[in-house]
Amino acid sequence: MYLDLDDLFKPKSIAVIGASTKKNWGWSSGNSWIAGAIKQGFEGPIYPVHPKAKAILGLKAYPTILDVPDDIDLAIFTVPIKAVINSLYECVEKGVQYVHLLTAGFTETGREEDANIEKELVDIAKKGGIRLIGPNCMGIYCPDGGLAWTGDFPTTSGSIGFFSQSGQMAYHVVRGGARQQLRYSKVVSFGNACDLQAHDFLNYLIRDKRTTVMGAYLEGLKDGPAFLEAARKATRLLAASTLPCESRITPR
Asked: Per DSSP, which regions of 55-207 are E strands?
């Protein structure tokens, strides 16, 4: 099944729920996302969300996403796990299309209570018409869409698409590739894959005109048959093209 993810990789507006007033913020802060989008030249409005701040990184801040005066295509969560459920309900009320959950501490912990929270998130999102990326992931890097989770990434686009469950792996692929003059069309770190999964991104990338090379790092598949069907489709498309190609799945 093909999902049109254009509004995920090229949103018209973004909200960063969990932006920080701290001067020394790191990669896990929403501020890293804001700085990345500014460097990439994001053309739409960026809305930091913080319960008390008036402004963050020079942008007007809002107490909740419900106070934002614009429609939101993509909301990025960097809030503590205890705030995620309420924030997601607010996103449903706001009519947000996509939520990227950088927040960690869910199924990956191995604790049943944390897995149950993740299941609750999926249920809320499904009923509210929201698609989820993550949790426990870095999200989207797309120079053409003006998105990056850090200010360290190149601002020029290329033809390589990459999807990875590991955020660290995605980061090093982009940074290491940049030193080799490689440039990327679309990169996604999608963590626990509670909603959008590997086959969704593969099906999207094989139809993306900007992408001619694809790579992936996967730690597990929730729907193996769907991924294998997408991989077969990618192989058929590559075989039908006039470009040299190689299709290979390498186990860890």
From this structure: 55-56, 59-60, 74-77, 98-101, 131-133, 139-141, 160-164, 184-189
